[in-house]
Amino acid sequence: MEGGEAARLLAERSAGRLRTYRRRWFLLAVVCLLNCSNAALWLTFAPVADKTASYFNISLEAVNWLSLVYLLISIPFGLVATWVLDSVGLRWAVTLSAWLNMAGSIIRTFSVLKFLSLGSQSYWFLFLGQCLCALAQPLVIFSPTKLAALWFPDHQRATANMIASMSNPLGILIANVLSPALVPEGKHIPLMLGVYAIPAVTACVLATVGIHEKVPPTPPSASASNSTSQPFLTGLKMLLRNKSYIILAVCFGGGIGMFTCFSALLEQILCEKGYSNVFAGLNGALFTTCGLLGAFLLGLYVDRTRRFIESTKVCFCLTALACIMFAVASRFRHEAVILAVASSLFGFFGFAIYPVAMELAVECSYPVGEGTSTGLIFVASQVQGMILMILLQALTVRVSDDSSSTCALDQDRALDWTIPTLVLAGLCSAVACFYVIFFNTDYKRLHAETNSGTSVNAEDTAAGTVPEA
């Protein structure tokens, strides 16, 4: 049976027959839900860091480690995840990540179960749950580009990648809004943990029951048949010798690392200046909502124009300007409007880069597998993000008790983040300048499809000449 299916697939590919399948939208929905859930689990505690520290009787540094562990674990496991995606397949990668994500979300709830009487050990159940969710993160984040390449025709790839990739910041948005809403006081933290477990369980059930194939029976584009053409180690060596890819990995990886730090530390930055957790959550929500809008608009634009490089360079420069604006405004009290505008612009231009840069990574590294090309960028971003978060925390200064501060701390004094935010803005500006000056590449995958002349295009689909099953 398998031999006959393989022979049929080879014959259809040789004949240039291509097809799209309606179930690609179900796969996209599962990946989106899983991505959204994993991001929400990552930043569950960041918007209510002070109340979490008070409830579990731990320091702010311990709370930050609940987010930082994602960066630490995903660095070594990111390489494993790239191999899983390109060698084992998309189906098993999504299913494995769904089970890890669900297990982590459930174990976190053990920390607040009274009958277990964990006492001071409750924090370690939180930490263990976060570790399992962190193992799922690379598989979850690498999947959108692979899914778009395998299941979607070329005129839908950037949009599909944008939808799946932006479900991750949607999870960040949910965490920024939902956590402060669920935890007006520390005693409500058990409710928060239970609520966040629901989408994780749902995503696991859908992935386990609903995903049966790792590739479509017939590819939707010419490049889809070659999406895993290079062995993992061979592809890795090709990437390390690709100058354009290395520049993209360093610059875009640095950008992701900066966004990671901003999302995880936003509440702590603002509370010392007297801004409430609700306002910090609103800022995070604006940051992400505007980012989703920016990514959607830029994804549509790039699908039509194929101007990957120009789009990312312009957005990177505008992101740096927005970061400078936030860094300056966050030094002062009573600047809520300016901070909200700066956060909105920072998200709008910054998140817009993400799905386009992921597609650009595939374009400049083709025919290396999508899991490997996007995975190495993610690993680079986690390394830079971890270093940056440790550096920024080291640059903070403890301040004396201030009646205007809204940081709800029982043990520690609040931290002044003036210097770290200015350093963050300076690094963002430097990376943007480096990217604009030095990055350039050919669109290798698009050229390959143009030469083959066998990709599914929008006109074919609209005319009905390409079947959809």
Please describe the biggest sheet, giving its number of strands, its sense, and whether it closes into a barrel: 2 strands, antiparallel
| Strand percentage | under 5%
Mean model confidence by pLDDT = 82
What would the principal axes of the Cα set say about the shape?
Answer: globular
CA-CA gap between termini: 20 Å
State the helix count: 17
Unreliable stretches (pLDDT < 50, length at least 5) are 1-15, 454-465
Assembly type of the chains comes to: single chain
* Helix percent band: over 70%
Radius of gyration: 22 Å
State the secondary-structure class.
Answer: mainly alpha
Q: What is the strand tally?
A: 2
Task: Give an overview in words.
This protein is mostly helical. Helix content is 75%, strand content 1%. The chain has 17 helices and 2 strands. The protein has helices spanning 2-14, 24-42, 49-56, 60-88, 90-110, 122-151, 154-182, 189-210, 232-240, 243-271, 277-305, 308-329, 336-365, 370-394, 418-438, 444-452, 458-463, and strands at residues 397-398, 415-416. The protein has a two-stranded antiparallel ribbon. Helix 2 (24-42) packs parallel to helix 7, helix 5 (90-110) packs antiparallel against helix 6 and helix 12 packs antiparallel against helix 15 (418-438).
